[in-house]
Fold this sequence. Notes:
By secondary structure, the chain is an alpha/beta fold. The chain has three domains: 1-44, no CATH class; 51-231 and 410-429, pyruvate-formate lyase- activating enzyme (Alpha-Beta Horseshoe); 284-408, no CATH class. Helix content is 47%, strand content 12%. It has helices at 2-17, 56-66, 103-110, 120-133, 149-162, 178-187, 202-207, 214-226, 245-262, 282-285, 299-306, 311-314, 324-345, 350-374, 379-396, 418-427, and strands spanning 30-33, 36-39, 84-87, 89-90, 116-117, 138-141, 168-172, 191-198, 232-238, 266-272, 292-294, 317-319. The strands form four sheets. Strands 3-6-7-8-9-10 form a six-stranded parallel sheet, with helices on one face. Strand 7 (168-172), helix 6 and strand 8 (191-198) form a beta-alpha-beta unit. Helix 13 (324-345) packs antiparallel against helix 14. The chain starts with a helix and ends with a helix. The model has no long low-confidence stretch (mean pLDDT 91).
Amino acid sequence: MYKRQEESLAALFDALKHGEKDLSHISNLTWKDEKGIHTNPLKSVTPDLNRFSNNYLTLFKSALRYGDVKGYTSIHDWWKYPIAAIMTCRGCVHNCVFCGGSKFGVNMYCERKTPSFRAPQLVAQDIQNVGRYTNGPIFVVGDLRQAGDEYARTLLEQLGKVKPVNQIVLELFTPAPKKYFEMVARAVPNFNFEFSPESHLEEVRRSSGKTYSNVELEKTIGDALDCGCQKFDLFFMFGLPHQTPEKALGTVDYCEELLKKFGTRLNPFISPLAPFIDPGSLAYEESEKFGYKIFYRTLEEHRQALVNPSWKYTLSYETKWMTREEIVETTYQAALRLNRIKSDFGLISPQVAKAIEERIKEAMVMMGEIDEIVKEKDETAREERLMRLKPRIDQLSMDTICEADEIKWPAGKRRFNYLNIARDILFKR
């Protein structure tokens, strides 16, 4: 189906270009006209992603041809920070309860029984191609081991022949043995990892679909760092099944313990599961079973939620264990504590820590102001008061609980290999 998706998108653009009204011939498309909503049939699911590649040369050619540098990138500051994403698969072998891209979700909505993978040799070639044009970090999407150990070994062997100089960022979905990190270290000079255990409590983690222990988690962190991992990002989450405010705040203490144990190449993050529970996820489709209350179900309800005055009212859910208000309050309290811990360990400067703390405290005050305004019965007066507050809302919605740079990996001083770009624009088709 994913092969068909790209073809379907091209067919849709072609139909719109020619002013076609009847779109019933385009597979994998849901569309609306004056007669109502139509859902066209899904076609067969393709077994691999080998037809497609990350071709950045097309981006450079289009930017040059049309004189539109910014219009051909999906990230507003990409030309300053050219991070690239390399897809290894579509679909997943895991069933995290909150993820719409889980095995359950893609089977339900896409009729995908198993993931589609891109051949490991081609993934390695994609990484090499990106490195030919940019010196920015390359994020490899998906745990390489999802397709099996042989897939991961083959890809890493191919990368070992290339030795990319870019910062390579790899994902872990489950703990990995030390021999895996040793293979990565042999293949990639500059490697980093991301891992999302969600909670420090094993029972909460299990309820979210992840069954490994803290012993396994910490061994994985230690092995990765021992093998030369330059940055290990660790992501925790609020709004999980069986997670109370007290249990959520306990995660901050665990982050401090991990920093004491592993040092500052480890970088922990905490955030709420926001703004929406993914449609297609187990938490959404079987919400009562997993203890979720879902506020928005239709597309219009989700659209309206996005224009709410604060993220508390955009939040699409609460749980049996945490109300909306508790999720918001816990997020801010945890962010304040983690911010101070990161400052103490030198992960961020005192100046940055102070700025973040001021933003968080201001956001908390503003949340109270919004709550009072929302109670205003006069709709006109309510809208006027919210509009006066909007500049502050917009300002505080950007990087409130941490700095955007915390999540970034180093890019080369010379971000683009201009000679290679120019040569290939002129001579490659």
